[in-house]
Known about the structure:
Blueprint: E1 3-7, H1 20-27, E2 34-46, E3 52-57, E4 63-70, H2 78-92, E5 106-112, H3 121-131, E6 152-153, E7 163-169, H4 178-186, H5 194-201, H6 209-219, H7 230-243
Parallel strand pairs: 1-7
Antiparallel strand pairs: 1-4, 2-3, 2-4, 2-6, 5-7
Helix pairs in contact: 4-6, 5-7
Amino acid sequence: MKCGILIIGSLLWDDKTEGRKDWRDHRLDVSKAVPVLVPIDYGRISSSRSNTFTMVLRSDGPPGTGLLVPCRREVVTIDDLVAEASALWKAEAPKAKRGVIGSTWGSVGVLFREGASSAGFAESWRAHFKKMGTKSLAVVGSDGSLNIPWPVTEDGASADFDLVLATATVPENVKPSPEAVARAMLCQADGHENYFLNNVLNGIRTAADDEIFTIIERGSPDWISTDEYRDAIAILKAAQSFAK
């Protein structure tokens, strides 16, 4: 079966966190990543990023654009699926023990395309999820399934994968407003605006990006005019012009 990893943040572009680049190079075919529409937003405060917001998956809401990245190996057995899930979590949480697929703040979940679970994969995955003691949270159910719509491409076609793996993190109790997301970036001085801007540069977008950027522009932070972010800012400005 063709397995894809749904990526909505730094797993795609972060080369500094231990193991992430190696995971992408050896387990994924990033060159064949497919932009897909899924409900996402900046919904979780990250203490390690100076209390700026990182991306979360939602079960519903305005669609944003994530990337569905094919795994290099096909999933033939439940052991193959477990291996991909474990490697995904290790990339997400480098200090986690090998084989673990979740924690109190996040978890790996699986979305099976209709018909793909007929070989007993869903049942086997459910048994493994419970055996590992992984708890349901956010959009991951007690059976380890992702409670999100099946990803569709930008032209509305169903994404051509048999199953999708993703990490879901626990969002804030109250969904942050675009202004709160923008203000969090404006109120820090440690370079953590890079999460938002690297997402934009790599095609990971939310429905609120234009509003977030408008508020940031109004705040005129020093970093908005740096060469480091020139391309990402150009993308955001172009989107603003198109919207007008």
